[in-house]
Amino acid sequence: YNKEKLKDGVTFYKAGHHGSSTSSSEAFIDTIKPQYVVIPAVAGTTEYTSDAKKAFPSDTVMKNLRKYTDNIYITEMAINKEIDGKVKTVEARPCDGNITVISDGYGIQVTTDQTLHTFVFDIDAGTEGVGHCVLVKNGNTEILIDCGVYATTVGQTNARTLIDDVEKYCYDGKIEYLIVTHAQPESLSNIIGEYQKNQAVTPGIFGTFEIGTIIDFGDNTNLNPAPAGGWLYNYINERNALVSSTDCEYYPASKKSQIQINDNFGIKMYNTGGSIYQSEDDYSLVVMITFFGEKLLFMGDLTNSEEAESKLASECKNEISNVTFFLAGGNGQDESNSGTLLKTVSPEYSIVTPNVDGLVGCTNPLSRETCERLAMYTDGGKQNVIFISDVDDGEQPRDESVLFSIETKNGKVIDKDIIYVEIDEDVVTLATSSWYN
């Protein structure tokens, strides 16, 4: 009756009767030509088989469906997975970048996801050190930029806390893109976890998640070859072992500096190594993420960097100008985030992750000069410059992250906002900081 209406096929098809041979006939499937299929299998069955006792979905139905699509998702109706007392996603798979199929054990949800979430994690959650960790997420596609702590107290790297934070938002156990900006522990220590006597004792990102693609600094380091038994040595060994034993791909940024995830979602890395070497910070990758025309710029640990920042501002002016989100480099210390760079970037929002303990006892603390430059060039001034750490004396440590969301509809941005996750008190901005004022 509806063949004419269905002649162009359907985007999503939920198969009838758990995919049994009495449903999803060849004639019907030839009519609807589905792009994406979900089959709620019988409890206890997670894949089709010729076993008559577990013949849901049937081989016949699978054959009919596979004439038109490989995007077939078989869920198990009887699984309820509780995390923190709540039923969370147990299966979520992206279809074409905008459509996600989710099963939470009770049912199946199909969502059109045109929202980009950015989590900047507070490294100062029980550690005495400084580090970097950012998770960018659209649907079920995750980009992790760095995951590390440089601890001032031996052994106090708090690796598991950071990895637990990432797990809260990476539901499917896979990080599609892992970007490591530079060869220092504050970038990569928690990627490999914790070591004692050259033996891994706490699994890091490599041992916790499936990794799709790794892009890192490659040979753009002064530590080449890496000292035996050190954190960089262990990182390289774990990375190479992962690539050789799984489907994970690896590229140095010099070989693959750009990834186009889909028409509206992309990543670009900039090598910033200047002619004067003072530390590995000078070689930090700068990462740009674009999403429906919006730009998010992550400066990594670029420090002592006026030469590199000026080169970036000059040679890439059109690419990095007028960004929505700017994560300040070098944890906001004075040697980074020059006026030349900030004038070009002209961000709507600036985020700073100051060195631990705010301003006291740090070798390179957050400086007033950096804050004043950020306030001068950030749209909205001091109100849109945000600290992710307990900068003010006497203030209690806050939650581990800030969430920045960009929502789109029909390819146009409809809402951009800073949303503070699970934080009761007001987040400190330059406008509200007692230290700054």
Q: How would you portray this structure in words?
A:
The protein is α/β, with parallel strands linked by helices and 437 residues long. Helices cover 19% and strands 31% of the residues. The chain is built from ten helices and 25 strands. The protein has helices spanning 26-32, 59-66, 159-169, 185-192, 205-208, 231-245, 306-315, 317-320, 339-345, 368-377, and strands at 12-14, 36-41, 72-76, 82-83, 86-87, 91-94, 99-103, 108-112, 115-121, 129-138, 141-151, 174-180, 194-196, 199-202, 210-216, 249-252, 258-262, 265-270, 286-291, 294-298, 325-327, 349-352, 385-387, 401-409, 412-420. Strands 16-15-12-11-10-9-24-25 form an eight-stranded mixed beta sheet. A seven-stranded mixed beta sheet has the order 17-18-19-20-21-22-23, covered by helices on one side. A three-stranded parallel beta sheet has the order 1-2-3, with no helix packed on it. Strand 21, helix 9 (339-345) and strand 22 form a beta-alpha-beta unit. Helix 4 (185-192) crosses helix 6 (231-245) and helix 7 (306-315) packs parallel to helix 9 (339-345). The longest helix is centred in the middle third of the chain and has 15 residues, at 231-245. The radius of gyration is 24 Å and the shape is globular. Mean pLDDT is 76; it is low at 43-55, 77-100, 103-108, 152-157, 356-362, 393-398 and 420-426.
Kindly state the percentage of residues in helix. 10-25%
Radius of gyration: 24 Å
Secondary structure class reads: alpha/beta
By DSSP, the count of extended strands is 25
The CA-CA distance between the termini, in Å, is: 72 Å
Low-confidence stretches: 43-55, 77-100, 103-108, 152-157, 356-362, 393-398, 420-426
Mean pLDDT across every amino acid position: 76
Helical stretch tally: 10
Strand proportion, as a percent range, falls in 25-35%
Largest sheet: 8 strands, mixed
Instruction: Please give the order of strands in the largest beta sheet.
Output: 16-15-12-11-10-9-24-25
Q: What shape does the CA trace take?
A: globular
